[in-house]
Amino acid sequence: MNYWLFKTEPDTFSIDDLINRPEQTEPWEGVRNYQARNFLRDEVAEGDHVFIYHSSCKLVGIAGIATVVRAGYADESQFDPDSAYYDPKADRDDPRWFRVDVKFKEKFARVLPLKTIKQMPDITNIGLVKKGHRLSIMPVDQQEWKTLSDAARQT
DNA sequence: GCCAACGTTGGC
DNA sequence: GCCAACGTTGGC
């Protein structure tokens, strides 16, 4: 089992939106970065745990946890000319972009702020605090997952 | 809205 | 295959 962090802009899709979805489940689509795509296609597996991270907003940080309920499959939005994520070069027989389905698991009483995460001495490896922090899908190692989720539940 | 830190595109 | 120009991300 692996651990991940998925970024989302809460103005577009927040953890509360996930809670309000049917089955509290949502296809995580619109990822248009090759490195992130490779994670979704090759490594994110059913049963993996995911931090839901709110970016580009007032309260930047980790908002809660979701579980992967379906591993990587073609992101339909790449074929939809009406979608903001439409990719005219995408080929149905050889999809370029992938998505996974995630299901809500836990919402923290408070968002664990990025500022706090950066100040935690044991958190040195997560992509958020390193260079190249712009990746929208990133792995989290088990140790840091535990440290971060414990910290988020303490407040 | 600014701007640093990326990633992508395309001419050569 | 290089790299300048351009576009995007995301914290502040």
TrEMBL record:
Residues 2-149 form the EVE domain. This is EVE domain-containing protein. CDD domains: EVE. PANTHER family: THYMOCYTE NUCLEAR PROTEIN 1. It holds the Pfam family EVE. It comes from the Bacteria.
